[in-house]
Amino acid sequence: MPVILATDLVKRYGDLIAVNGISFSVESGEVFGMLGPNGAGKTTTMEMLEGLRQPDGGSATVLGVDVVREARAIKARIGVQLQATALPPLTKVREAVDLFGALYPSSRPTDEVMKEFDLEEKASTYASDLSGGQMQRLSIALALVNDPDVVFLDEPTTGLDPQARLNIWDVIEGVRSRGKTVVLTSHYMEEAERLCSRVAVIDHGRIVALDTPANLITAHAPGTTIEFEAAHGVHEAALARIAGVDRVVVGGRVEVSTRVPELVLRELLDPHADWLGRDDAGAAAGIRDLRVRQGTLEDVFIALTGRSLRT
User: Fold this and answer.
1) Distance CA 85, CA 132 (A)
2) Residue ranges, CATH 3.30.70, the chain
3) Distance from first CA to last CA of the chain, Å, rounded?
4) In the prediction, which pLDDT does 278 show?
5) How much is the pLDDT for 108?
6) In CATH, what number does 4-212 get?
7) Phi and psi dihedrals of 209, rounded to 5?
8) What are the start and end residues of each CATH 3.40.50.300 domain in the chain?
């Protein structure tokens, strides 16, 4: 039996359907990601699996236990890191680990947890004085203090600077190396590509695709994306007619998807091309800040939904 099995989960808030018939399974030792923009239904799905919200339809089991009928039993065997962690005022880091450990019938030694998450030097520091990255490490440490079989991480790196984000990625990879099953939500495509065994792409409360990151990219965003700026705009229809162009997205930047980048780049760099906008003098406005990259999960999401992950 899978560690997590969700079948047709539904959650409504009045007329809003936050989760609309989501089904998936997670195997033991897997890092499973839910990727999508804010409001897509990721957090609500997690909260139903954690026993924090009751589904309005469908069913789910975690570690073979029904999330509605036996929610209390599930909570003893899982670890949860929420988007924001609230601790009692003037709580020091070591005190927080001691406190959370005392809430469970059995827990890991505080010294072991502090060492694993590189918090030893901050043991006597008030949690409110920690940096963003340090607070996230503490939040994940508290989620693992009971040595859970399944760990839920809800947007663990949102709001962090790049270095702090990399540190949290190392922490999550360490959790995986200990054989834990991890479910995480994110709207950072590079995070999911690095950490996740499989990814569910979620939009408007539905799973629109589910596979490994590599398979999703191969299926929905193969080839190369060429990005650039055009000060005076472009003629989108003419740009789409260039031989080798698969898709054109015109927003703040122009994105051209292709499987023959050499051919398309030659046409894009032609200063007399008819797809370029014109300035007031009638001259073609050239492209600038041109970048070439391989497909990403961001491209997958745009291909499936027509909008950005961060929308």
Assistant:
1) 11
2) 223-294
3) 36
4) 63
5) 94
6) 3.40.50.300
7) -165, 150
8) 4-212
CA dihedral 252→160→11→309, nearest 10 degrees, is 20
Q: Copy the structure tokens of residue 233.
A: 């705009």
What is the bridge-based pairing of β-strands 31-35 and 198-203? parallel
Share of the chain above pLDDT 90, in %: 61
| Among 205, 164, 185, residue whose Cα is nearest residue 83 | 185
> Residue 81's closest CA among 51, 53, 46?
46
Handedness of CA 91, 97, 98, 101 (dihedral sign): positive
Rounded to an integer, what is the distance from CA 289 to the centroid of its chain? 27
Alpha carbon distance 107, 94 (integer Å): 14
Q: Which CATH class is domain 223-294?
A: alpha beta
Q: Pick from 77, 63, 29: which is nearest to 178 by CA?
A: 29
Contact between 19 and 48 under an 8 Å Cβ cutoff? The reply is yes
> Which residues does 206 contact at the CB level (< 8 Å), separation at least 6?
20, 21, 22, 41
Residue 114 near residue 97, CB atoms below 8 Å: yes
| DSSP percent split of the chain into helix, strand, coil, nearest 5 | 30, 30, 40
Band of pLDDT at residue 282, cut at 50, 70 and 90:
very low
Q: What whole-number distance in Å separates Cα of residue 177 and Cα of residue 29?
A: 9
State pLDDT tens for residues 218-241: 898 888 989 998 877 888 888 999
Q: In one letter, which amino acid is 125?
A: T
Is residue 127 scored above 50 in pLDDT?
A: yes
Rounded to 10 degrees, what is the CA torsion of 169, 174, 178, 179?
20
Rounded distance between C-alpha atoms, residue 195 and residue 296, angstroms: 14
